[in-house]
Amino acid sequence: MNRSTFRIAAAPAALLLTLTLAACGAANEGGATDGGGDSTATDAAPEGESLSGSIAGAGSSAQAAAMEAWRAAFESANPDATVTYDPVGSSGGREQFLSGAVQFAGSDAYLDDEEVTAAVERCGDGELIQLPAYISPIAVAYNVEGIDDLQLSPETLARIFTQEITTWDDPAIAADNPDATLPSTPITPVNRSDGSGTTANFTDYLAAAAPDVWTYGEVDDWPVAGGTGGQGTSGVVAAVNQTDGAIGYADESQIGELPAVNVGVGGEFVGPSAEAAAAIIDASPRVEGRSQFDYAIEIDRQTQESGTYPIVLAAYTMACTAYDDPADAALTKAFLDYVISEEGQAVAQENAGSAPISDTFRGNAQAAIDAIVTE
Amino acid sequence: MSTTAQTPAQTSSKPVRRPGDRIFAGLSTASGILILTTLVGVAGFLLWQAWPAITADPSEVRGGQGLLYYIGPLVYGTLVAAVIALLIAFPLSIGIALFISHYAPRRLAQALGYIVDLLAAVPSVVFGLWGVSVIGPMMLGIQAWSVDNLAFLPFIGGPASPKSMLVTGTVLAIMILPIMTAVNREVFLQTPRLHEEASLALGATRWEMIQQAVIPFGRSGVISGAMLGLGRALGETMAVAIILSISARYTPIITSPANPGTIAADIALQFPEAPTGPPLATLVASGLVLFCVTLIVNMTARWIVSRRAEFSGAN
After folding, report:
1. B288 to chain A nearest CA, in Å?
2. Residues in chain B, pLDDT under 70
3. Which positions ≥6 away from A5 have C-beta within 8 Å?
4. What distance in Å separates the CA atoms of residue B70 and residue B287, rounded to the nearest whole number?
5. What does DSSP assign to residue B255?
6. Which of these, A144, A323, B10, B157, could form a disulfide with A329 (CB 3.0-4.6 Å)?
7. Domain limits at B291?
8. What is the Cα–Cα distance from B89 to B81, expressed in whole angstroms?
9. Domain containing B82 — which CATH number?
10. Residue numbers of chain A with a pLDDT score lower than 50
11. Class of domain A13-137+275-370
């Protein structure tokens, strides 16, 4: 009995051993080619130096999925290099970056003037780089039986979320959707119950596009009482899915099968597509009085421009053009190169559902990254 | 061997102390001191971290209108959720415990005991996910019916929500059921056999026997079990954070999506994105309040138990 069980166990164990050894062999081979493999990585590191060492970043959790994807892809292309990203939250990331604890940071908000002063000091001989490299459209998803194409002007949207409009057959909604037959289902507005950059961007949009209706300003915590609260993006999407008549805001990539509202922009209604989200970044003005590589932008929520979608979250990547250690500089440069590259943006779109940046903006960003001194 | 060892012990005035005695006494004392230090340490940490909020201008703390304004509804919500959980779990746990101790056949009783204990091993995040995707939608019908027919009750009001306080309380009840049932079962099993037999001999039925002998004997144990459950319900974080829809301050209604939050859930939800300084300290201050509330609940439980220590089966 014992012997037979041993034999049964022995076969897979032996197989496992062989596989492990084979895997080791493969790993070694991978390691061996890396010496020469640097030639492939030279796209990122111009002088043909081997990319090694490690850099650390910290910041917003909204970017965590994208950062993770960038990090993994970058490290597999440059096996001797290590990039870490700690999603401590935007303010924590900015603090760590300004104190010099990390080489780069991710943040949902750009550095304010006071922080820019600190950044000048932190970057020493170099300059601050701030790039909105992670753009994520926020969809207004809804679940109303019999309706899968809904158009809402900013005012109507704001009145729904302030709970001024309580049923789907309200005349204001009917005015935006002349051809639809609207049910008398009560509206259940769904919001985030946790503090969130998504809420901040959505309320910023409402405050800018419908200032007469939305008087709460831009806030991290949902200010209107009486709605349904969901934890995180998934909580909001689940709550909308569960309730007939529900409407909520969430990252466009996460709403699944739910239809999204076409929001009124100028004379037309625009849905949350990657192109429309990237377009609003190009259409928005830069914050005034910033240095040349500081691409802090003031998203133009009131834009009337055709084909733009104004409810987006633009998260920034921050770095310096000079570092005390040239190795840090080279690695940061190579990593940011990858982040803004078409490939990097595609990886983020696939893994985090972000919208790829436009070619126009990539040109600007490339100029900033090229300014990083690696000597 | 034992006789040779005993002789010197009897002659000398001091009892024998072997190294093992000393080591064990030292270890137990150290453990006792460690738990006290931990408690004091936690309280100290909370007070230290909450201090910026306590001393800050009311406009600087979270909510912008002072500590009481922010923490008050949270304390209320915490208590409401815990009380609902207790109201549901209290009779249920007594029923299950009595079934296991006095009604079920031995084998079934043992199996059931294990299953109830197993319930305690389910992580709270799993209860949360289960609550939000199964229990909530399931209870939507009952709640909608209550809103239509029982709206005259002060705590029923629409629109019915799968993320209401009632749903949260129900899931919490299931979560505190194991600890309460375990305590009750142990207490009921310790009812002196003689009491039970005397009662039966006087012609009492089984129900009357339980009423006369088992319940009075176990009362303080049942209460301390309930307090343990209440303590867990007060501090439950993940399940509440996932299920409860938080968007109101004080409200008596428990069936709508407008509910006050609970302290633990609020900390879990707001901590990751809270700005440092007084807003973050406000969250820690609410934690301090929860710490005090839990302490009071536990001390009350100890007091009730000690008041009738001679009957308690829990000690």
Report:
1. 20
2. 1-12, 308-315
3. none
4. 12
5. S
6. A323
7. 43-56+65-312
8. 12
9. 1.10.3720.10
10. 1-48
11. alpha beta
Using CA atoms, how far residue A112 sits from A109, A160, A171, A296, B115, in Å, is: 8, 32, 42, 9, 57
The confidence score (pLDDT) of residue A148 equals 87
Of A188, A229, A242, the CB nearest to B137: A242
Q: What is the pLDDT of residues A256-314, one digit of tens each?
A: 889 999 999 988 899 998 889 988 988 888 888 888 889 998 888 888 888 899 999 99
B29-62 pLDDT, tens digit each: 999 999 999 999 999 999 998 988 888 888 888 8
Decide which of 3.40.50.2300, 3.40.50.300, 3.40.190.10, 3.60.20.10 is the CATH code for A138-273: 3.40.190.10
Nearest C-alpha of chain B: how many angstroms from A173? 21
Q: Is A312 helix (H, G, I), strand (E, B) or coil?
A: strand
Contact B269 A235 (CB under 8 A): no
Q: Residue A199: closest CA among chain B residues belongs to which residue?
A: B273
Question: pLDDT by residue (tens digit) across B85-110?
Answer: 999 999 999 999 999 988 989 899 88
Q: What phi and psi values does residue A104 have, to the nearest 5 degrees?
A: -140, 165
The first and second tokens of residue B121, run together, are 């091993």
Characterise A146 by phi-psi region: left (phi > 0), alpha (psi -120 to 50), beta (else): left
Please report, as a single letter, which amino acid is at residue B71. Answer: I
Question: What ipTM was assigned to the predicted interfaces of this complex?
Answer: 0.72
- Closest residue by Cα to residue A190 from B136, B162, B130, B77: B162
What pLDDT, on a 0 to 100 scale, did the predictor assign at position A50? 67
- If one counts the domains in chain B, the total is 1
**Considering only CB atoms, which chain A residues are within 8 Å of B137?**
242
Residue B262 contacts A where some CB pair is shorter than 8 Å: no
Residue A162, classed as helix, strand or coil, is: coil
Comparing CA positions, the residue from A285, A279, A283, A236 lying closest to residue A260 is: A236
- Region for residue B277 given its phi and psi (left: phi exceeds 0; alpha: psi -120 to 50; beta: otherwise): left
* Residues of each domain in chain A carrying CATH 3.40.190.10: 13-137+275-370, 138-273
